[in-house]
Write a structure and sequence with these properties.
- The chain is built from four helices and no strands.
- By secondary structure, the protein is mainly α.
Amino acid sequence: MNLVEHHPLILEFPEFREKIHSLKMADKHFSNLFEEYETVDKAVVRIENGIEPNTDDYLEAQKKIRLHLKDQLYAMLTDSNKHH
């Protein structure tokens, strides 16, 4: 069985490594979204690896939440004029 690996945001967007760090420090909204993304991503990985049994519907819902959070974070990373 191949284990599914956790994909931290910094690995997803390596070109934004420094910006992710600075936004986490300076922008509370970004920081909260970042933490939520990491939590959901780790939950998805645990379910996919069979560590945390759950339903397929729950897994799909978590994947949709993760994608939505990733989209929001990406939008914040690419829009330097956005202030929260």
